[in-house]
Amino acid sequence: QDDEKWDFVLVSDIHEVGSEKEIKRKKFLDELSKKGFTIKKIEDKKLFYGVRAPKRIFRKYQWLLRNPDSRLQNPDAHQDIPVTTRIRIVNFILQNTVTPDLEKLPSLMKKKVFEATFPLHEKEEVREFLKQKWARWRDLFCQQPIEKIRCYFGEKVALYFAWLGWYTYLLGIAALAGLVVFVAGITIFSSSQVSKEICEASNTVMCPLCDQKCPFWLLSDTCTYAKVTHMIDNVGTVLFAMFMAIWATVFLELWKRQRATVVTNWDLYRWDEEEEELAMELINNLQHEPQQYQHSYFRSTVILILVLAMIAVLIGIAHALVIYRVIATALFTQSDLEFLREQANTMAVMTGAVLHYITIVIMTKVNRRVALYLCDLEKPRTFSQRENNFTVKIFTFQFFTNFSSLIYIAFFLGRINGHPGNYVRIAGKWRLEECHPSGCITDLFIQMAIIMLLKQTISNVMEYLIPWLAYKLRKKRQRPKKRRVVLGEEEEAEDPCKRQWLSNYRLNEVNVFSLFDEFLEMVIQYSFTTIFVAAFPLAPLLAFCNNLFEIRLDAIKMMRLSRRMVPRKANDIGIWLQVLEAIGILAVIGNGLVIAITSDFIPAQVYKYTYSPCMAGNSTGVDCLTGYINHSLSVFRTRDFEPHAQPGLAPMGLCRRYRDYRNADDYSYTVQFWHIFAARLAFLILFEHVALCVKLIAAWYVPDVPQSVKNEFLDRKHSSLRKELRWVMPPEM
Length: 733
Description:
4-stranded antiparallel β-sheet; 6% strand; two-stranded antiparallel sheet; mainly alpha
């Protein structure tokens, strides 16, 4: 039965005899035969070559990487090698076999000598089990069989699913907390003093929001908007932001423990990737010399400059989105539709968010090309080093693509636009956007909600539909014609391998980055759930619901729609752990900034404890925020408008209001402005230091490696040293 199992299948077009491609193919297959591979050829519309490695290759591997204890007991015994290891070794040899023309398989595939290479999905019980118990929608809430996934797809994939499962499990807690904060916000929807004041301010006339056509407007017109803002922007949000900073740390610490337990059970805790790689190189070619480590400062500098240039481009795109919103607002306010005129700002923000989503989709493809090009410049030594370099670059690019627009809305919007009579303008023409009188946090909320919902719904649907449709189409195109059997003619028996090879060939191809893409998607989502969570407490809930489907979606894709992945050995999630830790620190900074700068939390607190009626001491039973809105608006004399921006319908000389802390005579900043500025800075420093201290304490409190794992290694060392001594010491007389 073992002789019928083929490790790999190579697929090639049928080339003319004597053509260059056919000669190259023959040379490559001859090299494999020299190494002792068995090759079987099946002809259909394409040529299929099944290859099976000789047993001696695996014996060499087992001998080189055996456990030091096992060689003492019994040097001859060799257990069966697992299928995943078998596929991995064969893949390595195929990729590194050199033809007499000094070509390897990847370059032959570029020249279309071979079209595809893949290991086969076997009809083994592990696969049937995974299909029934894992890759099905009905198992949404069941635990994943990580051990079985490892037996079929190798350690790297198993660790991805273990991590994703653990992340989703802990997201449940964060989602619950976020939901509680959000519901609490809804219950105080109408009761907040600030929104009451805005709703009652029917005689506060505000400065126009744009130049020519915009009228003066009443503060009370924006009553609903103010209520929505105070639903998000309240004390609960501040506590929730603190909670999420701690949650991110605890999640990573608990994951480290989980990972240590899992890889110890697999006997991989002290596994050395370099040794594994050198062993494979030597099995493939005894004369192989290891590639040395190199580092060139010149090359690093060039790459750094190029990375910075790319980041500048991404920030430029964010600027373009800002300009779009400014111009869109100007156009919407001049539109003939009343709805557009009234909701100009919100419409501009919403269309801007959709546009941002589209730039994310396009730039993701561009970023990947650029990151790959930079990796080629860097000439990394090994595949895993290349993967790490690529990960850091693409994550940096993706981060700026996803977040630069959000960073602008959170920290710059409405803070750099000047004041009436002296606005900052784009090209001297269009005014920059302003914040709403009740704060900018709702804009951030809308932007986050739209991007997260679009990312999760559209991206997930595409991620499943495209492979599914591709698979159905390939299946339809390659359906074999039924041959009619003429009576009396003996039909040749069809090769049993043929059907299996063809059905595997019809599946969607997988590449080195298939798993990488899943990781990247999850890590970007993790950034969304932690970095600006103060503005969008529902982020963890959306992420949680998305991940429940994501796990099964990936499972179904891997089991039913794609060819088998080449298993990779690993004992952790690689450089992603450092990326997640970096996001954890960014989350503390980001949330601190959102509360200190974007939210109205600090100005309100300063007012409450310094300028409010409560501080006068004689007023009892008054809400301490009474008069806050009036306090936060400055007065403007209409005669000071710029000449070309004279709005109509204005009795000259009357005072109008705008949101800022400025003096009425010369429009310089008031004392309150500097007071609030100092309070914002003080809060930011305090929040970040407290949150980082709590993170450090949490990291210290939860040990990375469980005691059981440490004890197991202790016992192993002890028993192996004892055995060594038995060999040396003669039995005492």
